[in-house]
Amino acid sequence: ILKLQFLYFIGDTHKKRMKLLFVALLSLAGSAFGTEQVRIALGKTTDALSVEWHTENTQGGTPTVRWGTQNGSLIHSATGDSRKFTVDAGRVWYSHVAVMSGLSVNTEYYYQVGDSSTGFSQVFKVMNRRTRPAGQPYRHILMGDMGSSCAFTLCTACTQHSYTCDKTTCAKNTSVGLVSETDADMILHVGDFAYNMGTNNGTVGDQFFKNIEQIAAWTPYMVSHGNHEDDATDLAHYIESWRNMPTNSVPATFKSANGEGAPNSLYFSWDHGLVHYVAMSTELWFGVTDGTVTLATFLTWLKADLEKANKNREAVPWIVVHGHRSIYCSCDGDCHADAYKVRADMEPIMFDYGVDFFINGHEHNYERMWPTYKDKSDQSNVNPRAPIYVVTGAAGSQEMHEPFIFPQPSWSAFRSNSFSYSRMFVYNATHIHWQQVQTDPSLFPLSDYGRVIDDTWIVQDRHGPFNANEAPKEKPTTCPKGLCISHDHWAPLLGLEDGSGRPTHELIAEFRDKNGDDAWRAKLSGLMAVAKGSSPNTVQWEDVRADGNSDGAWIYPKGFSWRHGRS
For the whole model, what pTM was predicted? Predict the structure, then answer.
């Protein structure tokens, strides 16, 4: 399968484009910084919140978080744990983690972080474990695959032309996008950060954390690990940059290229309200390990965690497992070999322990599956008899999005390749309201930014392990009208529409059969001229390498060779 995704640049010539790229990278390099990149996470107990921030040096100061229920009266304080980061070439910086404890639930707190030497941050405000009245849902925001540039879901002002999309950038319009979700109880980012955190000696990662501070310092920001955090440098950035997660994994630490072991954030779990969340790294199936933390240790830990969660379902009925790569999806080749590899281990475990949802990114699109087991589905969200799988990897990155190559399976309820993020409204033990919010400035007018494109309810009256005798048995050959919806926005841009109303994958297959793969590659390259700020000479293919990482492979034709045929 040929998989195209874009890098957008300003300019008409390769020389000018590379000059602008160099200037953009130069502007990120070598600048000193004080107390910044603040983000907060749920604590290990309901009376705690954990905050992390970065500084360029320590200068003998004591990293501190101070807080209180009134702005101007931050009467409580705690000392932070500091760690030196030495993996970036030519520079050293420090991460600090401090815990605010003894907090009351359903209470707003003002806080700031820093030290007497490098200075303190601005004062932020956060709600600790909001208690929702009956009839008002908990509001969870979920998304994956968001870069420093092209972070289109963050706000309307984010573009492909700059790594910077911070509070100042987004100030013009905070009524839509992630910046508008100020009533959210929690944000979940399912892997792939910054593109990449280690790029340009880590300064692209710095800017990513500056960008998200406008949401992540105000609302608990939870994560799981993605394939763009696989190599030694990016993995070290991930491990050290999310030390504030409420880890409870076994083994408890992970040793990255940065040296001494840090909290093992490749897998861990926490409760929020009525939901038990389990973070997992799908990269354990693809070689990520420190020799102690392995796929085997994860699977052993996972079964014990889900066993414990099932004993607590009267208090916390919903279970959501999240990772990066798909277990079910239908857009391209990732949905075959890689998904099958993870599915072989995970599907029986999630079925046996009654997991309600599996949420992932990786595919730069959105796809919500019907409750599915062994490729079979009942096409109903009322009392699901198997887990529901959701791909929400369309927050926006330089790899952009891609066409749907394969027909939509009967277990796929809704799919769209526009940029978007997910809302999960948890009403009570039996009802969840799910929405997908479009945030795509590349193919749609600004008036469409923020519109809800998918809206459904999930009703589950009987939480617990699923029953194999009641599991979906038949694989429908077709979907009744309205039960399987597919929006592929590439057909008009590809110039393949013929008025027949046929789906894009059929039009693509017909074109390639008739004209050959060289003509198909030429058409894809020609599409670059249509994309904003792009040039037909600059392309990016996703997953051109065996490890799923296309970094450095984007200069055409010298950077890499096209994949021929339909793998």
Answer: 0.87
